[in-house]
Every structure is written in structure tokens, then in C-alpha cells.
Amino acid sequence: MVKPKVTTATNEILIKNGFVYDPASGINGDVKDIAVQNGKIVEASKLTTGARVIDARGKIVMPGGIDIHTHIAGPKVNTGRMFRPEDKLHDAGMESSSRLIRAGGGFSVPSTFTTAYRYARLGYTMANEAAMPPLLARHTHEEIRDTPIIDQSAYTLLGNNWLVMEYIKRGETEKLDAFVAWMLKATKGFVVKLVNPGGTEAWGWGKNCVSIDDPVPYFDVTPTDIIKGLAGANERLGLPHSIHIHPNNLGHPGNVTTTLKTLALTEGIKTHKKSGRTQNIHLTHAQFHSYGGTSWKDFFSEASKTADYINSHDHVTSDVGFVTLDETTTMTADGPMEYGLHTLGHLKWCNADVELETGSGLVPVLYSPASHVNGIQWAIGIELALLIKDPMKCFMTTDHPNGGPFTRYPTIISWLMSKKARDAKMATLHKWVPERTKLSGIDRELTFYEIAQMTRAGPARSLGISKKKGGLAPGMDADIAIYAFNPKTTDAGQKPEALVKAFERSAYTIKGGEVVIKDGEVVALGNSKSTFWSDADGFDNKEVTHDIVDKFLKYYSVTLNNYPVQDSYILNPTVIKCGPLAGGN
Amino acid sequence: MIETKTETQVKPESLKIVTDVVCPFCGTLCDDIKVVLDGNRIVDTMNACIIGNEKFKSAQAGHRIMTPMEREEGTTEFAPVSYDYAIEKAAQILANAKRPLLYGWSSTSCEAQEVGNELAEVCGGVTDNTASVCHGPSIMAIQTVGAPCCTLGEVKNRADLIIYWGCNPIHAHPRHMSRYSIYPRGFFTERGFDDRTLVVVDPRPTDTAKQADIYVQVEQGRDYEVLDALRTATRGEDIPDVVGGVKKEQIKELAELAKTKKFGLLFFGMGVTQTTGKHRNIDMAISWVADMNKYTKFSLIPMRGHYNVTGAGQVMTWQSGFPFAMDFSRGHARYNPGETAANDMLQRHECDAAMVIASDPGAHFPVSSMKWYAQIPTIVLDPHYTPTTGISNIVIPSSIVGIEEEGTAYRMDNVPIRCRKVIDAPEGLLSDEEVLKRILNRVKEIKGLPAGTHH
Predict the structure, then answer these.
(1) Which of A167, A203, A225, B330 has the fewest CB atoms within 10 Å, counting from its CB?
(2) Which residues from chain A sit within 8 angstroms of residue B330, using beta carbons?
(3) Contact B318 A146 (CB under 8 A)
């Protein structure tokens, strides 16, 4: 897994004459050559004569896709695989063992190797695990180690952590900063993640925080305090990404109010812009948070309210969390929400609360086209993507596997690029779907440039890694996708099925300068797979050390010395240095 | 205590204490063990229970297998052979078998299990771990009705009602009650023991039952009925006067008591998973616990036995999709306990070779299973002499994870902990992971597959 030190030019590829979509450089479908040398993009003039030539004439060339929010590694993901053997039965594409391929599969929760193959086939080269419980971080990293090809990171769950809440309650911001920095180091985490802040701790007693003003039992703070507290710490630490929030009250009718109040909380917080990002809060799976009504019966879309807010504020980015109307597995650190789902549908329910830190739950969900609720959820996702004007603020996710598996991204792209495709889908849904959403009246069809913003340039900038990822400028990592679709001769709006076909199986996926997928088949695993984590130095604090020691002596069930994830679990790390000692980012 | 020993037995300056050692014995996976070393010799342990202490000491108690061995065909005599020879033989057996069985895994590291799982896949074999004869029924019940669980620290900090059902931690998981459930003082349970109610359900008045505030003596094999009655009573419905030997009043009292508590926890063991009803018992137990969340907070945790049986299930699941009894003979992963578990395979004579890793079916499987095992080419990988090694063809010794090797293990509540290396293994012994890697590479060579693991 160690990157070979290459002194002479090797591993050269010249991708000729493709239609290049590289929004990070403002390139919009121009016919261009892209040159690769030693894992990086270079000027074509730098190549020797021995470069491998890929003829991309009549094909689309984009940077490798980046998934900003997905659940593909760690304890709850594996519980999803374990407790749903039927998920394998529903998978027509179970992988068989072969020279290069490890056996595995699962329709909504694929095994680790299969996950990597499927992302790579879509032209994706990075997928970020959105919820890592600190105590179980070692598990997440073991699974990442067993997921080849693609780059990964994991987001450390901090929104229900006891010490976080204690420092926030006492207004001890310096200690909070030091603790957050330590946690990211201990868990090898990339991002500060909040899931139902305060609510999951309340779930330790079977309770919840459904508004941002509900006090957390015993800890005497509110979600408001936690969100503002961690957003402040995130910016003071100068982390590459902003706080990444799954707000309170997910999935409940009328929750758009909570969502808008949540986003307003960080309006006044100064954004640390050294990593190139513009936001100080990332709203994840916005679809699940844009609901109107007072019950499931009068449930309707409030996508326009969320979209209006995001359109008029620059401190927010979001991802959608599309519902694809499949049978899938829901999994989240929002324990009380999953219990609610269990009581609603009476399907099997797993729960896993984690001492002093967080929790999680899982329930299978059968999104049904016949259900008005599920149909409206489907429409809300698409409304958001079409109503948010700037795709650099609204990214492609299904909150995999919660809204549906990531393998549906090509289908979603067809709904976004083709009114014909979404109208056809709408016609199969409950009659309340057009009545209670604005989707039928929206004519916008996204362009390939905008799709590349939603799936490449946007997530890279929001994550603070746009110097290396999400673009095709010389010096950037050579992560590239080529799709057999000719945008000049084929109208995506009229031929959505051709679009899906092309994007489901990339003609080529290149990862770190190596061809890993050709014609939709895995041809190599590459050796550039890396795990990203954020290392903020300069926040050491003796009192915080003392507090941590105390918590482990009294309340944790493991010793402090056995807690941090050892370096041996991270095979090829990319350490993003941050904090004042690193000069910001 | 240390000082006494240092004065009487060895020179104090040569002693060293290794702290935060993880005990590689049971699913409690205590990680606060201190091991006292004199050079490379384990002198004593602190904090470990009697079983754990014995586990560490047994590493140097002289009954280790020190060299690979081959059993002379048709006899009980073993001849020492080299690692190279044993690994070549093992690879030949596995590569030439149509559907080999790989069984065990629960007393080695996740790192070794990862290699082993690929080995099973490459051989087109069936791989199974000891959950198969232990908490396999719990897994099947979870696949039917889910499972509300939590980590053991949650129990320590919050639980005011502890139920041990069909398990006897005082003897099987000796530090379980003191570390996590009854005795520790937690954040919301400052008075420890005084803040908690202990209920024990068991046909026998065990030593654990003697500690209980409430002891429910269920008739042997009637756990399903009592669980069902408890669930019914919890819902306020009427139940018969006596169920499974337990009086209606006691069942109703237990149901009402549980509702008055803030945080309940059901620990369950093989007394319910491997007795009449099997996964149906656990199905009912889980359903009751899920129901209880309408009234209060309630979770359950299986009392897993081997220190890393939980990890074996995790590794198999994340790599290939299923937690035990996994069949690769068709190229993709299949799972059908009753058909693809180790005993099913052995009893129906469906495996034509077998490899046992880090477990002892010779001592725990039915004789009828082991009779077939004795007739097919077999390999065993184990640090110690066991009933299994005695009837296997190729015996390969290894170092002990958690004592002589580092490696990941999962506690019964799915918390992963990195086991520590405390001493060097006897000279020349290889680790499970290393032996498996060499076998895997050789099998790949024989089958014409590219070398190296696929990640």
C-alpha cells in the first residue's frame, strides 16, 4: 500500500479528445486532452512518448466522483449487513470470487470489497464515511482497510459526547478546542460530525431532543448550545471541512422549522477559509429535513424553504439524501429516530448506544411508490437539487443506504437532467405527490457541468480538499472518470436511459493515475488508496488531559491507553495538518 | 503482593510490569490486566480472574506444541516436521479439496481471521466460527427481529435493573459483574450495587443466582414459555397460573418491576441459545426487550464466550456478507445454517477436507461429527495440544494472540480492542496470521491466482 517513490516518469496516460467537464477550472465540455504522470495530472507537454493513450473521443471526462456523506464502513454498517441476510437475496449482482475480485455483495449494504468495486464502476474515487463512533473507531478503520481502490475518511461523532457537553455548558472554549483536537487524533477522524445533537444522549434514557431548545437530560445544555459550540471550535481549529450536521427532528412532518433555526445558528460565526471552503455548516441529507405538515396524513414538501435559505446564505453547503424508492436499510446515530421508525413500520430494529459518546439504530425500510409519504420524499430530494441555484452548495447523496443505495446515482442524475425521466417516474406515484410538491412545475434540467459540480468540485471544496481532489488541473491527484456518452450527439433530456447506462458503468475509472475500471469491469485495485484525517496541533491543555483521564478511570469500560486508534490501522494516511501550528490549513 | 513475590522469588530489578493488557480468554475482554514479567517469563498477573490468570500462565506451562507435526497414516503417532513442509501439505490439502471446511477462528485476531476468510474463499470452501455451536441462534434471532443493544459502559453508568438469563457469569465470565453490571459505580449509578436490582433466571440455583435480589427458577427447556408469558404480562394480558414452573405472580411482578426501572439490561447465555427452542427463545427475549422500550429504556447483550468470537462474525460479515456458516463453493457467498454450518457439513459428509483454527471441535462437537473429521485430510492450527490435534493429520503450532502477538479482538458488546504483545513467543513459532498468509499464498500459487492479499 505504500506509494512507490518514483524518480523517473512512469505510469503515463494521455486521455485524448474527450469532452472535459472540470468545474473547478471552469471547463465546460471543451474537447481537451488530459495528461497523467506518476499519479498526478500534468501538462500534456510533460509526457514522454511512451504514454498510454486512451481515446476519449465522443466521451465525457470528469474528475473522479466524491461522495461527501455515505455509510460504508463501521459498526452500524456491519450490523446492517449482519441482520439483513435478505439484502443479499435482493442483490442481483452478488460478486463471485475471481482473480481480482473478492466475493461479496448486498443490495443496500454491500460488503467492503464490493462497495469499492461499485463506487469505482460509477467513476467515484472517494467516499467519506459519515458517522464514526469514537469508541468503535477502530472497527471503522478496519473496514476502511478492507475497502480497496477508493480514498476514504470517517467523520467523528461528537454531538452527544459528555465532555463536549460539559465544556460547552461551562463555556470553556479553550478546553473544548483541545478536546475536539484530541478526539480527531485519537479516532483518526476527518470531520466533526453532529447527529441529533443532545437527542442521542437523551435516548440513553429513552428520550429525545426534537427542537434545538430542548434541554439534554442532566447535562443542562440544549442542541443550540452544542451546535454553536462545536461550530466555533471547528473554525478555531481551522479544520478542512465545516461541522457536518444531521439536525434534530429528522424525518418528522413540519421539521423544516427546526432545520432553518439550526442553519441560522452559525450565521454569525466567522468561517475559516484557508482550506478554500466558504461554509461554516454543512447540512446533510437536507431532504429528510425539509418536511411540512403536522402528521403523515397532511405531510407536504417544504423543499423551497430550505432551498430559499441556502440560496440566500453563503455559510451553508448541503447534500440532498435522495430517496430512490427502493427497499433499503436505514442506519444512523440518531437512535430515537430509528426507534420511531420501528414503531411506525414494526420491522426489525437494532440499536447500539455507545457509552459517553453516541448511539445508533437500524431499521429496514421499504420505500413504496404507492405511498404518498415516500413519493413526496422522492420529490423533495429532486426539488432541492433543482431549486438550489448553485450546485456548489448542493451535493449528490442518498445518505447511502438511508434514502437508497449509492448505486442509484446514475438514475438520480437522469431525473435531474431530464424532465421527461422524472415526469415518467412521477406518473407512477401517488396522486398527492404532484399536489403536495412543486416538482411538476420545475422545468430546470441540470447540465453535465452542474452534475460535475454536485459530484466533484462541490464536495471537494466543501471538504477543504479542492487543492488535490475534485478537479483536473495540473498538480492534482489523477482521479478521473470517463463515461461513454456523447453530449453533442445525444440529448440527455430525451435519452435518460442512455445516460443511466453510461454512468452506471464507467468506460474508465482512473485512480491515482492507474486504470482501475475499464468498460465497467475492475481491472486493477491501484495502490493509491488513502485514508484522510485531520490533525490539529497546538491545542494541548493539561486540564483537558486530566478530565480525559478522569472519564476513563471512572466511566469508560476500556482503559485510556487502549482507546486511541493505533497507527497500524491506517495503511496509507493523508494527514491534513490544521490548527495554528500548521498556519491554518 | 508484587513486593512479596519480588522479595522471595526473583531479583526486583529484573521485574517489569506491563499494564493495560487485554485478556485473551472470554468475551468480557478485560483490558486492565497487569502482567508481571521477569525477562521473557510471566511471573504473575494482576486484576485478571482465575481463568484469565491461568490463560497467561499456561502460555509458559510446558504443554505447548513446539513444532509442526504430521500424523502417520493409520496411527496415533506424530512425527515432527518443518513449517515449510506443514504449510506445503496444508496448502495441497486445501487446494485439492472440492469443498473444504474451515472452522474455528474465535480465539485468534481479526487480522488472522481476515486472511482465513480469503483462504476459504479462494478454496471454494465453507467457513464457520464457533458461534455455530454457541450464539449462532442469537444471530439468527437478530436476523428475524433485530436487537436493541448498547456497550457495557452504558450498563455501568446507567443500568438499575440487570437480568442474567441462562448464564452464570460468576464462573464463565468472572469479572463481568464487577466490571460492568452489578458492582461498579457509574455516572448515574453512584451507589453501585445499591442502585441496582439483580434478577437471575436459571433452572439451577447457580452461584450467580445466589447473588440475585430475585431468582426465577424456570423449568429446564421452558425458557420460551416464560419469556412469552413475561411479554404477555408486560402488555397487561392474562397468563396461566404457572408457566414453565414459574408462578403467574412472579412473572407479573417481574414485568411490573421492569417498567418501574430507568434502564434495564438483559444478559443471556447458552442456557437459552442452545436449549430447546434455540433461536426462538432469543427471538422472544428480543421482542420483549424491544417492547419494554415503550415503558422505559431496555437493551440486551449476549454473553459471548471466546474472547474474539464476536470479531470472527464481524470480519466474515464485512468481508463477504454473513456472520457464520458461510459457503463459497459456488463462488459467491451463501449462508444457510442447517446446511452450511460446520456440524451440518461434517454430519452429512459434505466436506472432503477440514482445517481447524484456534478452537477445539474435538472437545465440543458431537462424536458423529468428529467421526467424519477423522476420516478426511485435516489440518489444525493451535498453540496447545487439544483433543482436536490428536486426530488431525497436520498439526501446526502458533504463537498466542494477546500474549505473544498483537491483534484486534471484539468484546461481547462489539467494542474492538487491540490486544497487546506481552512476551516473545517460543523461538521459531509463527503467528496464526503468518501461517495463514503462507498457506494462502501457496494455495494461490497452486491454483494459478495472482499472489498477495486483495487489499
Answers:
(1) B330
(2) 96
(3) yes
